[in-house]
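#structure-requests
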Amino acid sequence: MPELPDLIYLEKKLPPLLAGQRLIDVEIKEPIVLRMLLPGDFAAALRGAEFLAVRRHGPFLVLALSEERELVIHPMLAGRFQWTNPNEKTAAGCALSLECEAPDKTRHLLHYLDDKKMGKVYLTRRGEYQPIPKFNTQGPDLLSAAFTPAYFHQKIKKSRQQVRVLIMDQAVVSCIGNAYADEILFDAGIHPKTFCYQLPDAAIARLQQSIVGVMRWGIAEVEKANPPLNMKARAHLRVRNRKDQPCPQCGTKIRRAGVRGFDTFFCPACQPLTRAQFIDWRKLDEGTA
């Protein structure tokens, strides 16, 4: 899914593009991603609407429209956006195209792209979020004052999960996905398969600091990369998708493992596992296993 740095980037980039734009046409290419929470037809309800504002709520982007309507978009695994002129080529995987007209009558298209068709686009009355799964159950924004060391310590101590699973739980803390979960655990020096109850207080405090610090670093790196809307900036990541490459801290090969059906990347030397597992990566790297 787009993670916090990606979402903050979109939250900054979309408002200047959409300000004052009026929706003059709607082309639905993948109805499976749409959720109509108002009476009537989805496309008809959008035509003539004007964009007013864009904000982020956890992993959701909320596009405020005229007449008390909102488009709430949950991109999930593969959702992306593209802003084009009418004569430009649409990127692959387009699910929804919104034709926009500016006050000077110039026209652009905002495309919602989703190769996996897993994202959701809700059209709802402003403020009516109860029918939208997980909208009202997001944990605190990790950059907010609510994400305190005391709050995080309490959540960790109550959990019997592996630590990577917990930090990706949107009800615990919002907007951490696969890529930055790996980067956070690398920064904190914690193996992704470590159980939460195994973490001493000092490690929990360090993990909370890594969550905030790594995400602030990610936000700055994505801003610096300035990618197109339909691309994710990932070149700055240190361990994610870097299997067999040298660890940037110690030179040991980065390894890949599975955690609850997801790939995770880690350094076996910088992030040692404190319990037995089938493969001892450290011995393997030393040529003794």
